[in-house]
Records
---
Amino acid sequence: MRKTAIIWQIIGLLGALLFPWYMVQGGFFSFSWVGGIFSDPKNASAFAQGLFHQKWWLITSLLPLVGTALALLFIKNTKLLAKFLVMISIAGLVLIFAQGFIVSRTGARIFADLFVGGAGEAGQVGFGAGAFVVLFSQLFILTTGFSGLGKGRGDAFIVGLIGLIVSLVGVFVFFPVSHILIQAFEGPEGNLGLAEFFDNFTSSRIWGVRCLYEANSCGTAWNSLFLAIMTGAGTTLLGLAFALIATRTNFRAKRLLRVLTIIPIITPPFVIGLALILLFGRSGMVSEFLYDHFDVEKTRWLYGFWGIYIAQLLSFTPIAFLVLIGVVEGVSPSMEEASQTLNGDRWQTFRFVSFPLMRPGLANAFLLGFIESMADFGNPLVLGGNYSVLSTEIYFSIVGAVANSGKAATLAIVLLSMTLGAFLLQRMWLGKKSYATVTGKGDSGQHASLNPLLRGFCYATTIPWAIFTVIVYSMIVFGSFVKLWGYDHSFTFAHYIRAFSINFTDGIRFTGVAWDSYFTTLTISSIAAPLTTIVGLATAYLLVRQKFVGKQVFEFSTMLSFAIPGTVIGVSYILAFNVPPIELTGTSIILILVFVFRNMPVGVRGGIAAMSQLDKSLDEASITLGANSFTTVRKIIVPLMGPAILAALTYSFVRAITSVSAVIFLVSAKHNMATSFIIGRVENGEFGIAIAYSTVLIVTMLSVILLLQFIIGKRRLRRENRIQKHTKTKVAQA
Amino acid sequence: MKTGLKLGLAFSGMLVAFPAMFFAAPALSDELNMVCSNEQDWCDLMVANFEAKTGINVAMVRKSTGETLAQVRAESSNPKIDIWWGGTGDPHLVAAQEGLTQASGVDTSELQDWAVNLSNISEGKTIGIHLGVLGVAYNTEVLAEKGLNPPACWMDLTKAEYKGEIQVANPNSSGTAYTELATIVQVFGEDEGFKILKDIGENINQYTKSGSAPSKAAGRGETTISIGFQHDMIKLAIAGFPLAIVTPCEGTGYEVGGVSIIAGAKNFDSAKKWVEYVISAEAQNHGPEVNVFNVPSNKNATIPKEAPPIASLKLIDYDFATYGSSETRERLLARWDAEVGDLN
């Protein structure tokens, strides 16, 4: 422990001495700060700021760093040292944040008397590299101290990981979200009170049940809940059917099917809605056809529940599939063989053996579908008609003609409590059973094939669905090559030329209007995706494999940012990160952060589902053989998590490209994203260029996904990846 | 312990390097950070022209008015935006009332009365840049197919033959629809106006969230008739959709687009130059190049021939001071909710 602490201590001291404490003009890697690390009041390190530039409070808040050094030098008793390290580093963290919050850009907010004089009144800007190095060193000294006290079985790696993730979630989820939720309790004069909240909360617009006995619409909460349950159930069912076909049948076009299941998540928002309108809207192709040939009246049935439902099924089934494929694959064939040996037929095997073992996957897939549906706002906006749901209500209470942030916050709380409910139900359903099926013991069996009825059912649901998806996407591609989608279908390349033209006259110049946002989007998503995956899977590892106090709360808190509609997240990020100490608005880092912490729950859910199948004895065997937990993670768990890693990477990459609602508030002139570009064009009625851009994005994402699949490959479970022949094996009589 | 350290180092390296890469305080000299709520092409063109003329480097992003207002509110303690150009005057007036914007002190003597009026109500915090007229559009093909008569007046929209054929936005979420509500109230008086709104409501197939959505739906034949701003309709018609545009015979309301400097803007001088530029006749004359057919606010600017002919239209004397105030707005919307909106 002492050694680890010493290293962190050295890192911390270096951070305080040799790195610029504040944000640097031109960015850290411009290294413009190097010359002025002591002398320039803008670029100086913390100690230099304190000693030469009258920022004495920086010295005070860094004193704990000296304290740790002394403790490390003079305390010989390990237990005592650990206690000291914990106390001193907590003090250090508190002091650093306290000074950051107290001294704002315009001077001290409280205790103004203390900060009289030049530098104190001038204020300070946000944390820079130096501050972050010091903060991380303090955090890890703290966790090292904790492990020294015997917490987490004395495993510094585990405690460090818990500490890191808890603080990241705290800073980038709780801190911003609390900014906006508190507004639910704010009265008209800025006073805090429950009355305001309850007035909003119990409104009949949210909870009205008139739809039960009159032809009126119900409260938005019921609408959202009903839609979310239907979507969750529908996507899970479809996802399962796809996963079963992919793993338990000899269906020929499996690969094509896999691609088809991925395409919908790589579709930029609004495009699916628009395609559906052109097919089934009142003047849509299908409606016109039915009217012309069968005299079916053209109606607006699409606008309302059914429109949103179809669009959400299309959009979110892939998520269920991504979660389920790993799980369905992972169910141990030896269990299925055992069932058949005991004379169970294929239906019984599926019903009583395979299916129960898939429960973690099903539960997590349902939860994701439920939450996605609750928070989705693009589809209800385009197809909702008069069926109003919470997410759109929230959006328009923030950006509508009559903005009411209190109402938005209240609705967000309603939405969150429903998510919490679904989360708890999911936990109850899963119970405390073990779902481990990847055990490391010899199981070279074959997966049982599906019984004919079930197989028929799977084909009957997925094939029409696949055809439907193909039609919708061909329409989109078609739309990008015609003059005016839905009206004038003469062929043209004009949209692509406008968006993506390249000029070769003097060197290569990207002259198309879309290039800027295209490059920004790709850069930001490729940085965000691996980070999301690491954070998500590390969290899943902690949740499945480690025991610590407050685990349930921790688990739910990781879902928080996913469950809250993007609009709310976007505004809360501005509120929280627009002012020092953490000042990020207008940078690309805020976009990366919002993606990482908004999408990590998918990594977490997928990781949990996959990891609960891995038998704990694998870890234990590794630990018994002398490996520590880091080696165990690296050599045992990560290789077995291939599908989950792939799913998390794919999903987070794609989501970073296609998400809209949170991003709209966070994009800035220098860092504009593709979706905000597309939406601007759609708002302006320029559908051609919007769809051409979407098509290019779809192709880009598809190639990246296929590349990822190629690189990560399949995990090998030492099982034959063959499906049993359809003749029933008569093992019992043999 | 050793591996704990290794991993810790790897993690911290990653976590420190990435943020550090992007920490950049905004540069300050001769820059302008703008949010543009106009059409993207118009934004791009004006930025290019302005940069060429002044040498000031403009960083611009396009956001809708509602989103911009929400962002300006959230950022008010440390504004990152200098100037907000475009979009209907309503949210600009709200921002002025809330003290989120500041007076620019530019010379408005060349501007039309309605543009000066906007500046006066907001104490100079927002200046009128263009005029958009409220209108009714119908899809000529669908109308013919259904054998309906084209509407010409607000009162026509109450006819039973249009049942389920009209689309308009919800005034709670859309400024366009609020302008329509306020217009009808001003033309017919409040009680009579609400009766008409209720009768029109019988024919409405959907109250959309966004103000420009109904006209897009009309263009594709998803609804037959839409209510909205005429410049949106003109754009769709020019793009090729079969839309015919009507200015109601009883008179119609309008909106005045605004430009405002954000309170606490870091580049006030550049922002002021921008305001002066966009209200000049020279700048406003470029509109038709990118299909912008608003009525420009500078008296010396040429009015594009595609723009609504305001000289011959019956425009009401829209009372922005009254109907832009939050009291009136809240009262009218509450009444709308109770008498019109709840029926759906």
---
Amino acid sequence: MIAQLIDGPLWYFSLTVFVLGVLWRIVMILRAGVKKDLAVPRDGGGAGALRAIFSRFVPERTVRRHGKVQLIAGYMFHLGLFALLFLARPHVDFFAEHITGFGWWSLPYWAFIVAAEVAFAGLIMLWLYRLLNPVTRLLSSADDYMGTVLVFLVMLSGCLALAQSVEALRLIHLFLAELLLIYFPFSNLMHAFTFAFSRGYTGATMGRKGIRA
Amino acid sequence: MLINHRRVLQLLAALLLLLIAFPAFAEDVASSHKPVTVPNPATDLWRAVNPQQLPPAQAAMFPRGGSQVQGVQSGVLINQQGQSWRHFRMKQLLPTGGYLLAGAMLAVLLFYFIRGKVLIRDGESDKKIERYSVYERMIHWFMAFIFLFLGFSGLILLFGRSLLLPWMGPELFSILASAAKEGHNLFGPLFLLALVLMFLKFVIRNIYQKGDLTWLLKGGGIIGEHDVPSNFFNMGEKTLFWLLIIVGGLIAISGVVLLFPVFEQGRGIMELSHVVHAIAAVIMLTVIIGHIYIGTIGMQGATEGMTSGYCDLNWAKDHHSWWAQRCIDEGKVLPKQQSVDGHTDNPDSASREGVQ
């Protein structure tokens, strides 16, 4: 009964909430618009936006110097998570069966393990930094912790179910992933989509003023 | 002819009784004979593949076999050491390890009731000293998180069958055991990473110094009312550090041998690794129980340094008086409020830098 619910209606419900929620958030951001810039632009805003979106993957020198751990841990977590989410064999099979209808190249087992180790190390380090640094601790809200805990639990339950021999572990993983999908659009986890908008806005504004931001 | 119905009925009843009683009678007769010796073909097979069951002269006739499978010891069907290993695990490791861990917890509990919480002698002051930077605390808690996860999952793998299976039942326990195994294997390499980070960050301050032996000979001041002066780390903390590096290193290396059977290690090495892994882990868990006790409920003000990064001045005077004095001399003592509100821009630069 519970297994059928998790595999069926709850999966479709959470996926619908995720897709509609993310679209709604993005549309609301776009509809908010920007104040008209009356000054004569010195350069193109579009080029500035594109530059900022991609150039900021490489951090500024001050960040590289004073935020090495956050920088390294941040990349470890995000790259590891990306690899686990889109290139793990069980996930590719799941996407092919439930969403896309086709599969793609997946990581070999050893690479999956390495990706999981890297992602876990990065996530735990970032979490600890958030808790232990007085500034980030002050800036963090319950939403930040909630998102971290959910992502951690989804990753952990997925790795615990790796043997694929115990159905209950797979269901726990899927159930937690569904909770994450429902929570995602209403949380700071939306930065997975909105980072491009914020970088693009700053880049376009600065670009019009002739500043390479 | 006149038929005596009663007689016929009596005859039929007697016949029925005889039919019922005959098999039992036949069994009795059979059991009174000696059993027929039937050679068991499995016994011959066992002797053939397990040469150590035979006298030495005959054992030489059964060398290691050949196999189509190309692998380490693929020609060995029966691993004699496996029995010794299994016996050691079931009969020695499980009970001894269990008693050791339970004993450590009991000892800590008894110590708490006898000695009580070690309080700051003059109470908390209004001054603080920075003790650990953000990065140092991150590494400590990273290690703590990984160690506890591996510790609990390892204990489930070691003692679960004896302690949890009867209580949880096979279905629930199989889920837990499978999850514990996967989790233990996954987080294992992270322990090695944590160990390396720990070593690099803390090794300088854990080199033994003059005065450390005195601290040890006086029992670290934990027994009795007299405090023993020490540096940034006392002899006990330094010994814990080196135990973690050496015993933890053994755990990590033996774990790697178990986790990656791709270095042509045979079953003997795997069994030896398992024994080393388990013994070292039980020793480390026992020691860490003491560390957790003294770092939390056992001593007032001990957790603070590892959570906020700052320790109370009076706590430092009580337990690390030489370091506290140097901090006072170098003007590194802060008002309590400043230590709570303020922070350093560089999370790696603690005010106690150079003060050990």
